[in-house]
Amino acid sequence: MQNSGPDDISSTEEQEKWLADALALVQHHAFYMHRALDSCNLRDALKYSAQMLGELRTSKLSPQKYYELYMKTFDELRMLEVFFKEETKRGCTTAHLYELVQHAGNILPRLYLLCTVGSVYIKSKDAPAKEVLKDLVEMCRGIQNPIRGLFLRSYLSQISKDKLPDAASEFEGEGGTVVDAVEFVLQNFTEMNKLWVRMQHQGPAREKEKREKERSELRDLVGKNLHLLSQLEGVDLDLYRDMVLPRVLEQVVNCKDELAQYYLMDCIIQVFPDEYHLQTLDTLLGACPQLQPTVDVKTILSQLMERLSNYAASTPQVLADFLQVEAFSKLSEAVVKVIEVQPDMPLVGAVSLHVALLTFTLRVHVDRLDYVDQVLGACVKKLEGVGKVKDNKATKQIIALLTAPLEKYNNIVTVLSLTNYPKVMEHLDYGTNKVMAVVIIQNIMKNGTFIMEADKVEALCELLKEIIQDSDGSPALDELDEEDFMEEQNLVARLVQMLTNDDNSEMFKILQTVRKYFLKGGPKRLGYTLPSLVFSALKLVRLLQQQDESSGEDGVTFPQKVFQFLLQTVEALSVVPAPELALRLYLQCAEAANNCDLEPIAYEFFTQAFVLYEEEIADSKAQVTAIHLIIGTLQRMHVFGVENRDTLTHKATGYSAKLLKKPDQCRAVYACSHLFWVVDGRVQDGERVLLCLKRALRIANAAQQMASVTKGSGGTLTLFVEILNKYLYYFEHGNQHITNSVIQGLIELIVTEMQSDNTTQDPMVDSFFASTLRYIRFQKQKGDGVAERYASIEL
Amino acid sequence: MVLVLALGDLHIPHRAPDLPTKFKSMLVPGKIQHIVSPGNLCIKEVHDYLKSLCADVHVAKGEYDEDSRYPETKVLTIGSFKLGICHGHQVIPWGDLDSLAMLQRQLDVDILITGHTHQFKAYKHEGGVIINPGSGTGAYSSITYNVNPSFVLMDIDGLRVVVYVYELIGGEVKVDKIDFKKAQPVG
């Protein structure tokens, strides 16, 4: 196959030259023709116009160049037509003219002139339109050269289109009926198509591509006929169905030409109204399998389905018609047939056909989930044995197939009822499957869809399994993008909030189902996913508590079952490992158990928390936070009996005193003082509170001394001021053991230390102390007996 | 007039999927000058969202926050007010206003922003004002039952701060406001 080279350039140059020459000649002859027209010389007019038309006999020009020549000649012929009209007024009958022009020497000019007179003839109504038209369309058979023939017939078409005996036209009646008009156009079309197809077989095989390109340039000449048919007023549905379509399709099928078939099928679909297509679906679809195997039928079918989809969307009233003609079953059968008949069709083609059909189904039969499922099922069948699809384009189509129902229904629960949906998704490769899973979750979150049944939750987890767990085909997790992975897992964590049901039993089933899947996620995922589950379960516990469900089967109440579930779930975090997170979750559970009055369970959770603290949390900063969480939670417990409470309190204070840094020790210990105070859970052991604070004070002292030894000057006094504030707290709250003298003593200690040379000045401590004193002064002013209590404290 | 948004205890993604839609549509970028959060956002995505609303974001560390670089406490000055932020799980007993007042004295701030209890509070004492904006998402809390989503917007103007609290109750956003005036600093 020759690519562009010197020969091609010169052929373009040659073309330009030939065209220029031909145009010049046309001009030349036209000049004389005009002279003849001006002097009403009919003989000369005919002579020169024939010579002019002779230029159209050339074989040298390419279609594009021939067109230019044709247009020039066309313009000149218009003048001639006007002249002919004038002539008939001057006594020369149209019949005579019609006969005269046939004396032209060569056939091509003869036929152009004949058509031109024919136009005048029809307009004059001296003869019935249908007869003139019939004569002309048959005479044109005299030109069998494709390019010349196509342009000639195109000329015929152009000049006759406003003179057809269409319904309600001036030419109807004597001149014929719309049937005659249609017959004329169909004949012209058929002959033009034959000429057009003939071009394919002219010339050497190696120039096939060039010929096809040239043919492409001429296709609109053929297609215009179809357009013309669609414009005829008299062509209603019946005429279309009974005459137009069958005849057109007959030609399309019989011509056995790939280029023509594809173009004409597309033309039919674009040019005629959707309403007609709907009513002639059988005929139209029936032609598809009869086309040449190389024709891209899937595109044609897709176009048709798209047009019908849009038709349905824009005109909801016609949906009943769609049902009546059984459009869906016809189209889905057509899809199956087309795929069968073209076994070499690439995967992307087959899938995109199903996408078009699905789009159609979602527009026309949105509530027929069985139809939607059927389409997916057909696609699944096609994908059987393919495994994971590797082709990018096909993958994109599969994603389109999966996204369409998701976006149409905006409800994952509906989509989950499509049994073939997960089967389609399975054909996506690992990476794409995850992308789709994310799309699904985002759809759920965006629409706020709640999934309320355990079996639907299970189906959803199955659908999302590539992001919930590792599978055989998945690459190692360290190859994945860390950030993407985190985002993905956080999305899964969010999803858990959407899995919920007001019915407590069903809710518990949901939790158990979700956990089953999450546990397969492995150490990398559990830290992200399990906490959501824990809080969901805690919400359930709270509901149970508020509803006071105390009865249960085999001695285990419902809340107890949930706590068992919680214990096991938090335990599962040990494989990550995530001791700090697990400790926090155990404490949350302990508080929940406390609220349900379940002492042994609360104790168990505390035990687990302490075990983690002892064995797994070594970082000193983490320990400080952890011990405060333990103290804070313990302080709120009211469910513990004396023994259990004492054990846990003792542990807490012990660990507080063993923190690494002295200031941390001090703070944790004075925090523990609240464990002896409590209030609504009773206790209020004032003496042990004081002991605790004194212990804190000793630690503060030690810290002070250590700082002066190691840093050469005293440390800060902030701890002392903090403890002073604690004294004041208990003093306020009526702890009898915290007396004025105790407070006074500490105040004086602080003042002394502040004035000592050893102490580093710290404006923060100064202001802290100052505001503490200010607070005391404020209290001294208060009514309700408060002032009296503070009176003895001297500042 | 300086607008300061106080919003925290969101607990995204483990206890709540997102801020309520009605809140999100109210929180428009460019309208707020500062954001102070007592913490428990908990993930970077949420911090990024806050930064999209306003460039000046201050977060104190909550016990579930993913970012370990948040400080335990933070102090900043806005106009004539000193603000302190602390999540509050460090202050025992949790939610105890007297203990929080002690922290406020220690930080030497006029306004203390704190959280942890998921319950809105605005408490004036002789040392200043304690504000707990509650949970922006209405997240589960072991301390408070039936949490309504809430946040606080402070309008600082000279020596006066107007505290607007927005609560989502029964699907509707209800607003309340409290006025605080700072004593003229002694010259």
From TrEMBL, chain A:
It is found in: Cytoplasm; Endosome membrane; Golgi apparatus, trans-Golgi network membrane; Prevacuolar compartment membrane. One of its GO terms (cellular component) is endosome membrane. Its main location: cytoplasm. Keywords: Cytoplasm, Golgi apparatus, Membrane, Protein transport, Transport. Plays a role in vesicular protein sorting. It comes from the Eukaryota. Belongs to the VPS35 family. Pfam families: Vps35 (PF03635). One of its GO terms (biological process) is retrograde transport, endosome to Golgi. The lineage of its organism: Eukaryota, Viridiplantae, Streptophyta, Embryophyta, Tracheophyta. This is Vacuolar protein sorting-associated protein 35. It is a peripheral membrane protein.
TrEMBL record, chain B:
Keywords: Protein transport, Transport. It holds the Pfam family Metallophos_2. It comes from the Eukaryota. Gene3D superfamilies: 3.60.21.10. GO terms for cellular component: cytoplasmic vesicle; cytosol; retromer complex. InterPro entries: Calcineurin-like_PHP_lpxH, Metallo-depent_PP-like, Phosphodiesterase_MJ0936/Vps29, Vps29. Residues 4-157 form the Calcineurin-like phosphoesterase domain. GO terms for biological process: protein transport; retrograde transport, endosome to Golgi. The keyword rRNA-binding does not apply. The keyword Chloroplast does not apply. PANTHER family: VACUOLAR SORTING PROTEIN VPS29 (PTHR11124). Belongs to the VPS29 family. This is Vacuolar protein sorting-associated protein 29. It comes from Ceratopteris richardii.
